[in-house]
Specification:
Elements (H helix, E strand, L loop, with lengths): L2 H7 L10 H31 L3 H27 L1 H14 L13
Length: about 110
């Protein structure tokens, strides 16, 4: 932790401890992306070499691209409306008398 962060708490702060599982998950995260590309290219290679039907090849190759193109506008709409969604959720919190203001806790 940086000294600025420690000074803002005005108390001793323990360092962030990472478990062995989290360490391996972070380390393998990069390999997952690489293995996805390798697996997809292997699947495409097998389809290209064993299938003579061009429509099957086209469907397998175009499906991921179509899925991405479908979800791009949806994610953009959600991003644009996020402030309205947050305001609506905050109004529900007020109706339920839930206080969402941050609180400071003094530990001595």
């Amino acid at each position: 932790m940086s000294s600025k962060r420690i000074e803002s708490y005005n108390r001793p702060v323990t360092p962030d401890i990472e478990s062995v599982g989290q360490f391996y998950a972070k380390m393998l995260k990069g390999y997952v992306g690489i293995s996805t590309i390798v697996a997809y290219s292997t699947i495409l290679w097998r389809i290209f070499t064993t299938t003579s039907n061009s429509s099957t090849i086209l469907i397998v190759f175009i499906d991921p691209i179509v899925i991405i193109l479908v979800f791009i506008p949806i994610s953009l709409i959600i991003e644009m409306r996020s402030s309205k969604i947050n305001a609506r959720v905050d109004s529900y919190y007020k109706k339920l008398s839930i206080d969402t203001t941050p609180k400071t806790i003094k530990i001595e």
